[in-house]
# Entry
Amino acid sequence: MSWLIDKFNQLDDRIAIIHKSNSYTYKELFNNIERVKKKVIKNKINPGEVVSIINDYSFDSISLLLALYQNKNIIVPITSKIKEEINKKIKESFSTKSILLYKNEIKVNNHKIIEFHQMIRTLQNRNCSGLIFFSSGSTGNPKAMIHNFDNLVDYYKNKKLRSINMILFLMFDHIGGLNTLLNILSTGATMIIPENRNSDEICRLIQDYKIKILPSSPTFLNLILMNNSYDKYDLTSLRMITYGTETMPESLLKRLRKIFSKVKFLQTFGTSETGIANTSSKSSNSTFMKIDDANLEYKIVENELWLKSKTQVLGYLNSPMNSFTDDGWFKTGDLVEEADDGYIKIIGRNREVINVGGEKVLPSEIESIILSILEIQDVLVYGEKNIITGQTVVCDVVIKDKIESGQIKKIIRKYCKDKLAIYKIPTKVNIVTETNFGERFKKFRIKQ
# Structure
């Protein structure tokens, strides 16, 4: 038996999971894992098989995930509800089984695989469990990345027990979501699973369950402000907000600090390829952070952050390993600014840089300035093709009140005039009802 599953038995009547107003103890979780192993896995799933779970977080999906982990399966969490996307992920992950959970029923489907990828063979030969994540796919085809799941779980082995309620915000198929899940389970804490991920629902859960830690993203935190969700519910239980997955605009952090003045803000950092790193923010008011993790090395090469970790991915199943060096460094694509005291700040992605007549423009810098304008609630900056300069700067804005497009453009240009170089000021402004972001609450930039 895994040390993690054995721990559930010892934790007994502690509440492990709350979902749809139902509470489940660690003992019930332990027993459900055993039930799944006997009812499904023993008769239908062999050790080492690649198995897709078509579901988001629930008591049963978490039980199934951990039962398959114990059975040394290679697991593919899939949260999509689009049949074509599901079938593609099943195929590209080399899944021989897929499992659909519906009203306490477990349906197992078989899939024919002609030949397995060598990385899958390697895990099977080592008798190790595996985990396959797909990238968000904001640019190009989503990459299928395979991890040694045993290594990921063992990273949490010596965590201290604590009694705390946490929201399981990031999704079942996301490395950040798995990090939160394993962190909660390894410390004997209680996870609250939201029925949906809108700002009102999350804030209601914070109020009702006196949640102290909210793991989130800048995009979602801004939605809390835009919808005034923070004003509708009692959020005084919050002690910490962690944010990651994308660059935090300094002006947004300033807005958040005014609303949540007694809450500590911590910037997290991680990639699907290398796992989540231990970090510390310079302060709650700063977007500078330190990576301080014994399991991870980093270096900065031409302003780009490179990582190497003990829990990093074995590789991609459907894509070349161009992002990795021959000696194992992962080139994250994140551009950083380094301070003299060793703190670093993520300032953008190299693929998002806008080239205006040879001048490099970072969208995050412009977004932070524009977001300081009182009339604007949200902004997304990206590049469009231009015959003369190659590219030009464009922004989509969500405004507070009804303002004509021409007027808001004048407001933006006037405000930015003495804060940005002329080539950085948007030449085109679009008024939108919401900016372009995915289900993981990470902005998608349209780069042309």
Summary: Residues 240 and 417 are 36 Å apart (CA to CA). The first helix runs from residue 3 to 11. Residues 3-154 form a domain with the Rossmann fold fold (CATH 3.40.50.980).
